[in-house]
Amino acid sequence: MDMKRRALATGVAALLTCAATMPAMAQGYPSKPIRFVVGFSAGNSIDSVARIIGQHLSTKLGQPVVVENKTGANGMLAATEVARSQPDGYTVLISNSSTITVNPLLYKKMSYDAKKDFAPVSLMVSVPFILTVNPQKAPIGTVSTLQGMLDLAKAKPGAYSYGSAGMGNLTQLSFELLNGMAGASMTHVAYRGSAPAQVALLGGEVDAAFDNPSAVPKIKAGQLRALAVTSAQRWHELPDVPAIAESGYPGFDISFWVGALVPAQTPVSIVNALSEAIATAVQDPAVKARLEQQGNIRMFGPKRFAEQIDKETAQYTEIIRKADIKLD
């Protein structure tokens, strides 16, 4: 009997020791408000996704989710703040792909290491770029197909221009990839964001641009013409607009994603719990519909999200090398 009691006592002690060393998740995460830190201004796709998911998690987890916009340096200020925060699951970076996959390739001096300082939680939405022209600006504005635009560009190398949301931005990388695949040469004009680039296209300053979903109303109103989208398949919001990959350039596939990341030392149990809670957003028809307005829903968990980051980083490394894009 004594031996049985001793064995029971030993077992209980082992369980208590195990419980004491379990991560915070087992002790009731979340128990206080969660901060979503967004590196871009309110109203754009990254901020919109953050607020949609934040509202869903507030209901799902029973704690407020506060969205804070910390803008500047293509998301680097926000990324730096989150990288230096406590790894407890209460400070979450809601980022676009450029901050994680492109910035490290172009900036020599950075205050965070995209690979070492973050744990991927969930890729949420993948957003295609839309190749747009101004129908009022001849001759490129009068073409109705991607190949028509490229034929003009190839006939007069450097004579036509494209606008981007900035040097090294994914809109520039997308156009340089297209230039390379098509053997064309269009002159790059960088602007301070996607909104100024769109204004420049509407004003006739440039001949073409890769725009984001904010262009859809203007496309439907006839102010802009969409020639193609950059995702591997067509986008549901513009079903009649072909993908570049199906327009004679197979393999072309560039989109920017919106994803959630936390500091690297965050307990795996918290990372997984947060990822699983985010993924339930698609189970709510209203939330799903709002996310679909922002792009293609891609609820990738931590492992698959990390693989996507590695894949894109390798792709952009090659584009930057071939186009000889340098910032500092």
Structure, briefly:
The chain is α/β, with parallel strands linked by helices and 328 residues long. It has helices at 2-21, 45-61, 76-83, 97-106, 146-155, 170-182, 194-202, 216-220, 268-279, 285-292, 302-323, and strands at residues 34-38, 65-69, 91-96, 118-128, 130-133, 161-164, 187-190, 208-211, 225-229, 255-263, 296-300.
Protein model, in words:
- By secondary structure, the chain is α/β, with parallel strands linked by helices.
- It has two domains: 13-17 and 34-127 and 255-323, 3-Layer(aba) Sandwich (D-Maltodextrin-Binding Protein, domain 2); 130-246, 3-Layer(aba) Sandwich (D-Maltodextrin-Binding Protein, domain 2).
- It has helices spanning 2-21, 45-61, 76-83, 97-106, 146-155, 170-182, 194-202, 216-220, 268-279, 285-292, 302-323, and strands at 34-38, 65-69, 91-96, 118-128, 130-133, 161-164, 187-190, 208-211, 225-229, 255-263, 296-300.
- Strands 2-1-3-10-4-11 form a six-stranded mixed sheet, with helices on both faces. Strands 7-6-8-5-9 form a five-stranded mixed sheet, sandwiched between helices.
- Helix 2 links the parallel strand 1 (34-38) and strand 2 (65-69).
- Helix 4 packs across helix 11 (302-323) and helix 6 crosses helix 11.
- Mean pLDDT is 90; it is low at 7-26.
